Amino acid sequence: MAIAKDSLFNGREFDQSLAGANNPLPLFRAALQAGREILRQRFYDNSGAAALVIAHAWLIDQLMVRAWRRHLPLLPAGIPVTLVAVGGYGRGELHPHSDIDLLVLIDNTDNDADEAIGRFLTFLWDIGLEVGQSVRTPTQCASAAAGDVTIATNLMEARLIAGARAR
């Protein structure tokens, strides 16, 4: 049985609150906690595990995209950066207490984007997400995958969250 997504997260309401917020951190924390509490209750109400892990990934997607948009203006102009879900999160499945595996795909690691990416990742930790991340170029991804089957598997399960599609 599918979980009603709007019961987990109301994007329109959240966006309105976010537009007027000087400090977005409490809004993100509250939305994450509320959504996870609903999922926990659905578990105790015997909702199917498959539906719950898919709904959890969807909830995180909603928060991730909004956090990315909030931090994107901090990136230096002209540096294309893409946020990619990998691993189980990339498959669109997120179990309770799982870390969220992210790949920040960037054209060139010799640029000024490191500080902005660091702020974005810190923000994710501050709202209560356990993030496992890597920042790589496409060439570095190919090289790492060639040398490690677990990285290759993670990349095969990659899913675009935000940013440029043509990578």
Task: Describe the protein's architecture and organization.
The chain is of the alpha+beta class. It has a single domain, classed as Beta Polymerase, domain 2, CATH 3.30.460. It has 8 helices and 4 strands; from the N terminus they run ααααβαβαβααβ. The chain has helices spanning 5-8, 11-19, 25-44, 49-71, 87-90, 114-127, 138-147, 149-156, and strands at residues 81-85, 100-106, 131-136, 159-162. Strands 3-2-1-4 form a 4-stranded mixed beta sheet. Helix 3 (25-44) runs antiparallel to helix 4 (49-71), helix 4 (49-71) packs across helix 6 and helix 7 packs across helix 8 (149-156). The radius of gyration is 16 Å and the shape is flat. It starts with a helix and ends in a 5-residue tail after the last strand. 22% of the residues are buried. The model has no long low-confidence stretch (mean pLDDT 89).
